[in-house]
Amino acid sequence: MKILTTTTAALMLSALALPALAQDPANCGTVRFSDPGWTDITATNGVAAVLLSALGYTPDIATLSVPVGYEALKNGQTDMFLGNWMPAQQSFRDDLDATGGIVELVQNLEGAKFTLAVNKAGADAGVADFADLDAHRDAFDGKIYGIEPGAPANQSIHAMIEADEFGLGDWELVESGEQAMLAQVTRNASVPTVFLAWAPHPMNEAIEITYLSGGDAQFGPDFGGATVHTLARQEWVEACPNAAKLLSQLVFDVPMENVLMGKILDEGMDPQDAATEWMADNPDRLAEWLDGVTTLDGHPGLAAVEAAVGG
């Protein structure tokens, strides 16, 4: 398959920017996407699911690890993915781009960051930089707390340990899911602890976090400064332009995601319930997301979503 060029992608996205003239065909009714188990993507998936449902589509969200999720997108088992964190997932993105079958619909978030951090006890011990860690190995029990196995950030930590960067060759990466990692950090409140931290996330409000400098080579500059992108299969975009148009206009911000993630993590809300509540409180966002978008059967999309969420 021919690799999708920047020009081709631009032409496709410009076509999406045109007013919708007709509904999608019935076989576009189910929209398949994946969730890596990260609360930020669970939150944005919740928003997408509520919007799609209100428009008459059926969202089908599979819980898949990052590597498996990318394989599913590449192999046509899913249609789109809202969680392409860059540059942390550059290798996965390169693999997808090489197939020529994937298009980026939009950068859906800016201002994100993702790198190692320490809790207050770690900062009080004098750790503010990657290079400070090994001098305090015993206080940290030689452990770095990461997220689920296979995640790109964990791979970066593994590579750092294997290369003995910053003298961390005899440290251990403890791999677990996001919530298990944060539960461990919470239990370790009085113990120096180094862990993966990121924004947006309500952990930044609940835990006194010091993001570590010095990790530019491992996580990128500006404390792992990141953007998040929405990817989709080229064939799906061409076959289902109305749904793709919605996704191309679905852009978030850090404060919004912090609120949504707090509802999910701290209040125990279902992601779609949290998204519905947020949209009812912020109806002004709906117009930009739904500009030119119809329901699956061709009726005005904004009115359908407003009726569904109470905006």
UniProtKB/TrEMBL annotation:
CDD domains: PBP2_ChoX (cd13640). This is Choline ABC transporter substrate-binding protein. The keyword Translocase does not apply. Gene3D superfamilies: Glycine betaine-binding periplasmic protein, domain 2, Periplasmic binding protein-like II. GO terms for molecular function: choline binding; transmembrane transporter activity. InterPro entries: ABC_choline_sub-bd, ABC_Gly_betaine_transp_sub-bd. It comes from the Bacteria. Residues 30-280 form the ABC-type glycine betaine transport system substrate-binding domain. Keywords: Signal. Residues 1-22 form the signal peptide. One of its GO terms (cellular component) is periplasmic space. One of its GO terms (biological process) is choline transport. It comes from Paracoccus siganidrum.
